[in-house]
Amino acid sequence: MTTTPPEKTEKSRTFAVAGVAIASAVREWWAAFKPKKRVPLSEWMAAEGRLDNGARFRPFPFQNGIADAFTDPATPQVSVRKSSRIGYSTIVQCFLGYRISVDPARSLIYQPTIDDAEKYSRDDLDPVLQWPAVRAVATFKARHRDNQIRAKRYKGGWIQIKGANSPKEFRRVTADDVLLEEPDGYPWSAREEGDPARLAFKRSLTSPRAFNAAGSTPKIKGFSRIDALFEQGSQEYRYVPCPHCGHMQILVFGDGSAAGIRWGPRERPTRAWYQCENGCEIEESHKPWMDEHGEWRAHNPDAGPRHRSFHIWAAYSQFPGAAWLEIAREFIEVRKDPNLLKTFVNQVLGEAFAESGEAPEWQRLYDRREMAMKLGTPPAWAGLLVAAADVQRGGGGRIDVDIWAFGPGRRRAFVERIEVFGPIADERTWKKLDAEVGREWRTEDGRNMRLTRVAIDSGDGENTMEVYRWARRHPGFVMAVKGREAIAAQQAIGQPSWQDVTVNGRKMKRGVRLWNIGTSMLKMELYGQLALEKPIDGEEYPDGYVFLPDGTGDEWIKQLVAEELRLIKQRKGGFRREWHKTRDRNEALDNAVYARAVAISLGADRWSLSRWALAKGEYDRPASEPATSSPQALEPDPLPPPPPAKKQWISPPRSDWVKRRR
């Protein structure tokens, strides 16, 4: 007889414990072995993040994509090329709070300097330590060894803040997270140890959970760390849909001819909108909807997800200071100044600034000559006439003199080129020059003008003594000048130095003063002004416009743009900017720079419209004052009269007390 084995009953796997205390301990013990669910940073900062005023943080949709990359296990590196006013600092604050409350780690933060590190600890990190989610797991007591200014220690991890300007800040420390704050502001080299950004990333090499992040506003094109990191990564841009046609596109500033931000009126805008790639007009009120339905798209997907890099600029932000109208107004304020425009490109567009030292195209300048202006005739608005001379020994000797006219609004116009031929050491050559600079020019409106000042270059070393001799004969009228090669010089014209002194080192009477000219700054200004477009349809000429009259030769224009600014990388790190010739002759460029420096020294940039009218002779003078149409009579002599000689003090003879007693 066949018998079947009895069926086995499955035993229950539940634990039965007695006592409330034992049950609570078992639950904690069992929870320790249960795998934790990883929460994305975007969810955590929406629930636990706080602003400076204690209010709950409400992230923008574009911020969520960047934040989630910080906590993605498949992404060990994140780079953010950004502008200001997009809330990146708040994302980093939330990441540090997330580390303390959810996922402890060793976090290392690098600031440009040690002073910046201390300010970051007080202003950015200390408020995070007071968030409720952070205080629930860690308490940072005042004057405690675990709560120092640049070092915070909590259970399972720590946070250290260091400065990138000291080599010792990169030694004897290993971290899981390395966060670079504004790496474009780091020094170019940590002395003999190399690039600070690369040294910082080396601190996490031995960590099994290494994570590196860098976020910065870019600076100079070609030498921007964050720009290079962005190019190495996935290159993700924010695509948003048009609310009218649904076309997905990247927001750009534009140039007024295609997609981009538009505004009106042109000079004092009261309304701004965005021009879609399909021609739709998008109002500012649609921005939140566009961002909510937007997405990040990688232009270099092969680099992700290992290295995700993002670009974001102010047009996406919903802060009031980043409204499209505010961006347009800011651009109008800075567009005429290359130095201010650089700040706009970096801080608003979030892009690296390409130096404007590239020479303008001479053909474009040749084609835009003013047909209504004649060579040799100053314009009707001219109130100041200045000459600049360059001495050449080659070809038997030659002195090239350029005449420049200046007027209100920093406008200037080339008048004519005068060439004086003859040996430089011959006195007759300089007498010819005296005759040329002493004559009159008749303006378009019939006024006779004379030169106010003449600047002559003395820096070549070959003609210095002849230049000094000629300048000594015309004190107060001729200025001996020398260009400074230092790019960092932020002065158009510096304090003069006396060149004629006695054996005892005293200044000689009727001596020569040498004026130092900041040529680099003036060349960059000139190239920026030459890039201004010629107005059309009766619009006004912009401030700083450079007028070239009809008849100006192509050779002179080529000399005007004969140099370009190049960035040269140094062997020990960093870079150096140098001006290099693109052709042999550059006399027109040097003379234009020296004439502009003379106009600045005369205070032409500060003259009011009434002062320019007075220079043009439009105001009647008192009968006792001789009439003149030359601005030279309006300016005091630059050489102040010598101070009166001090009377020598002769002490009175001391009385003889013997005679007085007698």
UniProtKB/TrEMBL annotation:
Disordered, as annotated region: 620-662
InterPro entries given in the database record: GpA_ATPase, GpA_endonuclease, P-loop_NTPase, Phage_lambda_GpA-like, TFA_Chaperone
Domain Terminase large subunit GpA endonuclease intervals: 307-605
Occurrences of domain Phage terminase large subunit GpA ATPase (ranges): 58-296
Name under which the protein is recorded: Phage terminase large subunit family protein
